[in-house]
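DEPOSITED CHAIN:
***
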Amino acid sequence: MSPKNLKELKKIRKKLDKLDDSFIMLIKKRTILVKQVLKLKENKNQIIDNKRIKYILNLIKKKSIKNKIDPKITNRIWKNMIYSYIDFEKRNFRKK
């Protein structure tokens, strides 16, 4: 890689790192909301809502296409996030 390209790569990576910091804060906010939702669930079988998952993934696909983002990327990200939070809810569920 040329010195010029290497310099540009470092700049871009710095921007990516900064963006990652923003993602961390968004994940923190989302986790707070998921904890609130979890408190409302009375039974562990309420953790997975397949209709909601399907709705979210369809909505993300539409928004991705509208914003010219590859829907395969966003689908994978959202699926991972959804199932990560399902796991989180299962680990943190407290029977009332």
Notes: The radius of gyration is 18 Å.
